[in-house]
């Protein structure tokens, strides 16, 4: 194991489970990183998968209701009142580009899209797509939750099936 990886692992392991849980939950809420980044951190910290997975899923889902309820209003206000209009327009275009992949199968399309463990396909983008499609809140939440759980399961399995040894972790 490299000195850097060993140092990171020792630091995370020394934090204690309570701090590790908070760290994994917080990382899971960050756009783009989401649980795809939080689960490897949890595993490096030595957290048991049966604690890490539900914490990461919960953290990843925490912002979803707010995105579903408020993203269109927030985007509208940002475009009208701030210099962030160009960024917002790009985010909307990204969501609209992905709508076609999801719209045909709506619920299951959103579940599969959200469950693909790659950057740009997680809960944040899924929630944006659901909001742009005017999908009902409860239906969107369930679909996104299933996708996030699937992505988390895939990342956890990948970690134990090879990523752990590639990183030189014990």
Q: β content, as a range?
A: under 5%
Order of helices and strands: HHHHHHHHH
Number of helical regions:
9
Low-confidence stretches: none
How many angstroms separate the termini? 9 Å
Q: What integer value in Å does the Rg equal? A: 17 Å
Report the count of strand segments: 0
Structural class: mainly alpha
Main sheet characteristics: none
Question: How would you sum up the global shape?
Answer: globular
Rounded mean pLDDT is 87
- Integer count of domains: 2
**Helix amount, in percent?**
over 70%
Structure description:
The protein has helices at 3-13, 17-28, 34-44, 49-61, 64-81, 85-103, 106-115, 123-132, 137-166. It starts with a helix and ends with a helix. It is globular and about 50 Å long. The chain is an all-alpha fold. It has nine helices and no strands. α2 (17-28) packs antiparallel against α3 (34-44), α5 (64-81) crosses α8 and α8 packs antiparallel against α9. The mean pLDDT is 87. It folds into two domains: 3-61 and 151-166, no CATH class; 64-150, no CATH class.
């Amino acid at each position: 194991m490299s000195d850097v990886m060993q140092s990171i692992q020792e630091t995370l392991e020394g934090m204690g489970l309570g701090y590790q849980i908070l760290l994994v939950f917080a990382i899971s809420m960050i756009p783009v990183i989401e649980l795809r980044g939080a689960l490897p951190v949890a595993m490096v910290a030595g957290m048991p998968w049966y604690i890490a997975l539900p914490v990461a899923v919960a953290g990843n889902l925490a912002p979803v209701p707010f995105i579903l309820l408020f993203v269109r209003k927030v985007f509208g206000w940002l475009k009208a009142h701030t210099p962030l209009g160009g960024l917002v327009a790009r985010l909307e275009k990204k969501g609209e580009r992905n709508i076609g992949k999801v719209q045909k199968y709506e619920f299951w399309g959103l579940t599969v899209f959200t469950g693909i463990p790659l950057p740009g396909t997680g809960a944040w983008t899924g929630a944006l797509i659901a909001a742009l499609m005017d999908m009902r809140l409860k239906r969107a939440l369930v679909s996104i939750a299933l996708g996030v759980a699937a992505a988390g399961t895939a990342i956890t399995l990948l970690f134990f099936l090879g990523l752990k040894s590639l990183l030189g972790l014990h």
